Amino acid sequence: MTLDRMVLAFAGSVVLLGVALAWFVHPWWIGLTAFAGLNMIQSAFTGFCPAAIVFRKLGARPGVAFS
Hints:
This protein is an all-alpha fold. The protein has one domain. 70% of the residues lie in helices and 0% in strands. The longest helix has 22 residues, at 3-24. The protein starts with a helix and ends in a 10-residue tail after the last helix.
């Protein structure tokens, strides 16, 4: 799995986790989903993604988006 796919899978998982926690635990967990969305937007404009840095250090193969 490339770095790009790992970042997308992680972001999608965080969004779904935030929605599930907001539904089953407490509505304030929707903030996790908002944080993930804001992080994806800033990453699109700046090219800086903290998750990509972590996955790269863990040995993920480089992709096209986060080079």
